[in-house]
Amino acid sequence: MPHLRQLAALEQVRRIVLVTLERKGVPAPTIGLTAQLPDKVVHQPIYPRDYKLNLLSKIFDFMVLPGQLKKLVQYEKADHIVAVGTLAGALVHLTAIPLKIPYLVSFYEPHAAYMQENKVWKTYDPRYVFQKKWEKEQALAAQGLLVVSDAFKRELMRRYTLPAEKVVVLRNAVDEAMFYYSKEVRRVFSNATVGIYVGKYGGLYYAHEAFQIYRRCFEVIPNFRLIILSPQPQEEILQYLVACAIDVEKVHVASVTHAEVPAYLSAADFAFATIKSYPSARYCSPVKIGEYWANGLPVLLTEGVGDDSDIIHREGGGATFNLKEEGSLDRALLKILQIIQDPAHRQQIPELARKYRSSERIREAYAYFFGQSGEELP
Q1: Per CATH, which fold does 183-356 belong to?
Q2: pLDDT tier, 32 (very low <50, low <70, confident <90, very high otherwise)
Q3: Which of 153, 214, 277, 332 minimizes the number of CB atoms within 10 Å of its CB?
Q4: Distances from the Cα of 272 to the Cαs of 96, 275, 278, 302, 317, in angstroms?
Q5: What are phi and psi for residue 39, nearest 5 degrees?
Q6: How far is CA 77 from CA 3, 47, 73, 321, in A?
Q7: Which tens digits make up the pLDDT trace of 102-138?
């Protein structure tokens, strides 16, 4: 939505057709979507056939969807295509090249590497082979790439000898006003030190290891309390808590809407970003970190994640840890406790969100590629 709003705000953009792939009819998040869209935007869902075997669904996608997208692009007389992510980028590449239409890829990331390094795909999996191939083709053929880290920009320029002006760093933006810190909410836990985690467990994120980190917090932080906001079944999370001998009475587990998250962040003192430490993690930009910072929360972050671990080392805003390094977690927790003892930290940390995660950066990036801005972006 932030990208749509900024694109629609550009004067030369007359109309935007938002294309989404819906596998099971119209899902709940899509209901009411039209009411939120800017005036220039119309929503055009496409309903691909859904097979029980995921691989068959993917094969069908790439056999059929480019043809459907070509017809839509021609019918709408589109001048440009913006692909959101490299998975969509693969379909857009197959659509745009035959039609000779320029395209951008926002959220360009090494998705194949993410999936292979986290043991979701094998190197011989057709999904991995083709996704890696299409990521290279997008990098070479796209008009521009919007990546979420400086580290990945440097890697793309080295790997494919891309010119610097083709790749713009656009970290995942956050609505600073929405995630503003509320002192009144924090008073709910007036006598406790509260940590919060927002998100899933498993896949790209630590699962059992995350709960071992929580247990260590209960051991070393006096009167520690924990908030977990996750879409996963509460029964699974309770099993993790019990397995790590954590008192469930000291943990609040809930599944809430995105609009409710800021209040819970305001009730906490620091936040967990327990992303797995895999090689391509340095190329990502977790949304939750920007939301934590916007609320003034110092972040306990895995070493080597995106640009954020480097930002924390240089400018503060949290502490990093490495589970393979003895004593690293305890040192990071001590740093977190030192930060939250500073009464000004809740006002200072949001400066990081404004500096690195501002939605204004989205407008600048699209204006740069669509030729409405004379400014040069690094």
Answers
A1: Rossmann fold (3.40.50)
A2: low
A3: 277
A4: 41, 9, 17, 9, 12
A5: -60, -35
A6: 21, 21, 6, 51
A7: 999 999 999 999 999 988 899 999 889 999 999 999 9
HEC profile of 70-120: HHHHHHHCCCCEEEECHHHHHHHHHHHHHHCCCEEEEEECCHHHHHHHCCC
| Residues written for the chain | 378
Q: Are 201 and 214 in contact (CB under 8 A)?
A: no
Q: Return the ∠ at Cα 167 (arms to 162 and 168), rounded to 5°.
A: 160
* Burial (CB count <10 Å: 0-12, 13-18, 19+), residue 212: middle
pLDDT tens profile 304-337: 999 999 999 999 999 999 999 999 999 999 999 9
Residue 272's DSSP bridge partners are 197, 300
Helix, strand, or coil here: 282?
helix
pLDDT of residue 352: 97
Q: How many CB atoms lie within 10 A of CB 139?
A: 20
Which amino acid would we find at residue 148?
V
Q: Which residues does 40 contact at the CB level (< 8 Å), separation at least 6?
A: 8, 13, 14, 15, 16
Please report the pLDDT score of residue 47 as a whole number. 85
With a cut of 70, say whether residue 12 has pLDDT above it: yes
Closest CA to 264 of 165, 195, 328: 195
Instruction: For the chain, state the CA radius of gyration.
Output: 22
CA nearest 316: which of 287, 286, 288, 346? 346
Q: 3-state secondary structure string, 315-357?
A: HCCEEEECCCCCCHHHHHHHHHHHHHCCCCHHHHCHHHHHHHC
Amino acid at 27: P
347: left (phi over 0), alpha (psi -120 to 50) or beta: alpha
Ranges of CATH 3.40.50.2000 domains, the chain = 2-171+359-369, 183-356
Cβ count near 360 (within 10 Å) = 10
> 151-201, pLDDT tens digit by residue?
999 999 999 999 999 999 999 999 889 999 998 898 877 789 999 999 999
Residue 64 has pLDDT above 90, yes or no: no
Asked if pLDDT for residue 25 goes beyond 70, the answer is: no
**Whole-number pLDDT of residue 30:** 53
